[in-house]
What we know:
By secondary structure, the protein is mainly α. It has helices at 3-13, 23-36, 41-50, 54-60, 64-69, 71-74. α1 packs across α3 and α2 packs antiparallel against α3 (41-50).
Amino acid sequence: MGKCKKRAFNKAKNSPFTRQMTRQEALNTVMNEFNDDPSSLIARELITLFGLSAEELSEAGASYEILRSLDFVLN
C-alpha cells in the first residue's frame, strides 16, 4: 500500500463520522456525496474504509466518469 493510500485509510479509520455505520449506510452516503460533489473527500474516505468495490458503486448508481476518477482509490 502506498503512503498516500495508507494515510487516507488511517485518517478514515479514525474519523468520528464512520463510528456506527454499516456497509449499506456507507454506500448510500457515498452515493449522496457523489451526487452533491463528485470530488468529495468524505466519499473517498468511506470507500477506502469499507473497501467498496467499483462493482458495488456502479450497482448503486455511480456513473462511469466517477468510477474512472476513482481508479487510484479502487485499486
